[in-house]
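Hi support team,

I'm filing this because I wasn't sure whether my run with zinc ion finished correctly. The job status page said complete, but I'd like someone to confirm that the output block is well-formed before I use it downstream. Pasting the exact inputs I used:
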Amino acid sequence: MENQTGPRKNSTVAGATMAIDPACGRKVDKGQSLPVTQYLGQAFYFCSSPCRRQFSKHPEKYLKRLSTGRSDQRAQL
Ligand SMILES: [Zn+2]
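And here is everything the job wrote out:
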């Protein structure tokens, strides 16, 4: 009788320590020592340094994708 609240299979608390790598869209764990960068006062976490480098080149491009890509991710592929 514990799993009535939803179809959650994983018991880890997503959202608390997870962040989205804006460069590749992968989920990354903030708890680990990941590459991080500050942009417009916000911290962004990356799965790897190449991703951070990519983001640093065109941060606005990746941020735009992050904010608009939720509803129509498929259209961009
Ligand atoms: Zn990445």
